[in-house]
Structure formats: structure tokens, C-alpha cells
Amino acid sequence: MAVDSSPVSTAIAHVSGLAQGVPLDRTLRVTLHFHPDLPFTDSSTLEAIADRGAYLSQFETQTGNGGLTAYPGGVRWKWESRMFGGAYDEHESAERPKYGSLNYRADPYGGSPRFGSSYFLLAEHTLDRTTFCFPDSVFEPDLFGTAEAMNLMEAAAAVDFDDPLDDYIEAHVHGTIDIASDVEALVLDPSYRDTPFAEIARSLACPVLWHDGYTVAVEKIAHYPDYRGPHIVDLARGIAHDGVLTPSILGRARGASFDPQDLKKVWHYIARFGTRA
């Protein structure tokens, strides 16, 4: 019998050798967070996904809501090499894993809102080609899991995070994520209703759902200037409409000359303080 030496199989086998625990509850789902209106080439991330019919990795988009180090020799490249035993070192960007989180709390806002207002809810069968780590891979963790061996929920429960946006189990989905066959639903923020992004979403080969939405008054986040900095609160005040911020309002600011990293921090304020929970 031929041995499967594909990068996907090599990476999963490497992590399987590090994972410990019992099989994962198959009712749990992985969520892939993103901002649908994040610019990509001459359009948006959601439009690019619709055109491709598949989810794109940060190595492909060169955009994201975490660190932007997805290039050969970059920090993300190096930690992927470490986590996956060098499986992807010589392979194209499209072959690399896509990052998400295990929504083990069944949060309607998804498993890791830090990385976007909207998310793709992946189908059960994708669990078999997903690996996990805790904490985030940027911290070079030594705790790993797979669908067959997972004790990361216990590890996460033992940590008291100062910032709830840091509280997630990272997921790495290996192989192509086809919207038609690998996605159960696209879950959008309701601020995108009656916008072109809703129309693009309806063109996808998956159901479209809506969570309860993010809305926050600037005066609320002004009580927390130390969270991301007083200058970020000032930026949020300038972006807000009638003193209120939503994901779509923030999205409109992305077409202006603001620093994308500052806008990312405005999103952190919305994500942390703007839920209806």
C-alpha cells in the first residue's frame, strides 16, 4: 500500500504524535472568523471567497486580523514549520492550513470573535483534517489536539484570561475549504443586512445565518482607554455614526487612510464590549 506523503497527511500525523486526550465531541464545530469587508486586491475578502468558491488563508490574502507575518521566513511561516514538522515548508500558499477556532462553548458569536465579526461554520467531516493548539500559536504552545485526542478544553478552562478575546482554542484546517461541501453556514453580523455584502453572501453555495450583532456606543468604550489606548478611542469616536459603532460602520472606514492596525484595535473594542450577551 502506498504511503500518503502529502503535506496535509504529514502535518496531521506530526500533530497526532503530540496530541493527548480523548476523542473530540463530534457535535462541536470549528469557526473561521473574518471581516467580510476587509479589502482584498480590488474587492473585498468576501467577494474573493465567493469568486474562488473556497476560503483563503492569510498566506494567500496577505490580510488578517492577527499578526501579518504570513510570508516565507516570517514569524507565522516559522511557527507553522515548527507545529507541522516542516510539512508545508516547500509548498504553495494555497496548500497551507486555514486558521480558526473550536467553538466548544457553542457561542453564537463563534469561537474567536477577536478575528472577525462574521464566520464560516464548518461541517463535521472537516474535524478529521483539523489540528488544534492552546494557547494561540503565536505563543509557541506545546499543547496540541486532534479529533482523536483532545484535552485542550481542560487546559483552556484552567486559564483565567484578562481579556476574553484571548480565550479560544486555535484550529488549523488542512486542505482546501470548499464552500459548497465543507461549510454548514456563513454567519454574518446583522449590520450587513441590506448591503452588497448580503448579496454576495447569498451567492455562496451555503446557507446564510445572522448572529445577534455587535453594537457599542463610543461613550461605553471611552470608560476603558487603557484597553487599546486613548488614541484608539479617539479614532473610534471619529469613525462612529451618531456615537455608535458596528462592524459595517467600521468597514466603511477601511476605505479611508486609517492605519489598518489601528482599525483592528477599534474592532477589539467592538468585539469585547459590543455583544448582546
From TrEMBL:
UniProt keyword list: Plasmid
Q: What is this protein called?
A: DUF3626 domain-containing protein
Q: Which InterPro entries match?
A: DUF3626
Output the Pfam families linked to this UniProt entry: DUF3626
